[in-house]
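Batch manifest, entry 17 of 40.
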Amino acid sequence: MAEALSPTPVVPPKTVLDFLRENWPWVASLVYVYVTAIGMVQAWFQYRAFDLNVFEFSDLNDFLLAAFREPMSFLAVIGLVAYGALGIPLAKVREKKGVASSGLPALLHVLARGRMHKWIVYGTFVLVVVIAPYAAPWYLHDGYGEKWKRGVLADAKRVVHVRLKDVKTVKGPEGWIRSVVLIGITAKFVFLYVPQTKRLLIVPLTNLVAMAKE
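Output type: structure tokens
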């Protein structure tokens, strides 16, 4: 009498969550590097408008924090990357519902039907990942040109008074510099714009005694 064969167990396909659980150290490292890269791009654009190479005055952790100092730009970059990552699934769902897709999801869905679909889709996604940190801040902040710079200098929330230890280098009672514009801060330096002289003042934090709002 023939022995009955046991059915082969069906292994469910792995989901995105399964992948994240199995590879979370790599994923966390990639997220850290990417967020830091976003901060580097934003900081470079911001300080370049004031003719400053911020990389000479910054540590790596400064750029990680810089990404979160511009929340709209950061969310725009993450949104573009997520939009690209979910492009094909979104297009397939809309196709099943009989709704036509448009934009990036439709493009990725069309490319996915070709012979080289995997490489084309992966390449398109990588392109979005690379371009997004540049395109989103540039678009949201008017290309970091003169219009953006005037807006920063006119922002009343950025106007501060600072007091320095070395009173010989400044004009003012007791080492205070009045009504300067706070451009940014790193782990070791604070960057101040002096409207009267139209110059950028780079102050080591070790020389900073106090800072007060206008």
